[in-house]
């Protein structure tokens, strides 16, 4: 996985009655969950995202269907396929993300470490490259 990303597997309490997955902040994900949002009804061929965050950390889960997530730093790039509601993609600081190939009925749920703050977004790729090159230079 690229820098500042990882897959997290959650316990799936499954049986004849179906599946139940519980996610506890600071335990199953490495932050306190301050916000939850979900994305549904994305038409085929639409790509969303195209941004990074300076401070926000997130875990993305696809609760139904399938969606692809392209994650990038200036040095690395990877595409993660989410199609298992018991697996989440953690995205840490300063990772660029694009979400695409939503299947019909796909539900993408996001757990977030911060409230919504537009100033935390970097939406311009040139600005992102400049800040990220500095951030990842150790
Ligand atoms: P945005 O994060 O740009 O969506 P995506 O990256 O998936 O394309 O958000 C889309 C709109 O929703 C934008 O106008 C901001 C608003 N929004 C909120 O008001 N609160 C939130 O928690 C989020 C994630 C977005």
From TrEMBL:
InterPro entries in UniProt: QdtA_cupin_dom, RmlC-like_jellyroll, RmlC_Cupin_sf
Sugar 3,4-ketoisomerase QdtA cupin domain boundaries: 4-131
CDD domains assigned: cupin_QdtA-like
UniProt keywords, alphabetically: Isomerase
Top-level EC class: isomerase
GO molecular function, one term: isomerase activity
EC number: 5.3.2.3
Pfam families: FdtA
Superkingdom in the source lineage: Bacteria
Name of the protein in question: TDP-4-oxo-6-deoxy-alpha-D-glucose-3, 4-oxoisomerase
């Amino acid at each position: 996985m690229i820098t500042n990303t990882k897959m997290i597997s959650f316990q799936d309490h499954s049986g004849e009655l179906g599946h139940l997955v519980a996610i506890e902040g600071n335990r199953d994900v490495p932050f306190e969950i301050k916000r939850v949002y979900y994305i549904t009804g994305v038409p085929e061929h639409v790509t969303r995202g195209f941004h990074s965050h300076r401070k926000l950390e997130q875990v993305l889960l696809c609760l139904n269907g399938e969606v692809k997530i392209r994650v990038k730093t200036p040095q690395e790039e990877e595409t993660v396929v989410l199609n298992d509601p018991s697996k989440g993609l953690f995205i840490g600081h300063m990772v660029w993300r694009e979400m695409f190939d939503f299947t019909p009925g796909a539900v993408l749920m996001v757990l977030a470490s911060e409230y919504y703050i537009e100033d935390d977004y970097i939406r311009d790729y040139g600005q992102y490259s400049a800040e990220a090159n500095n951030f990842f230079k150790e």
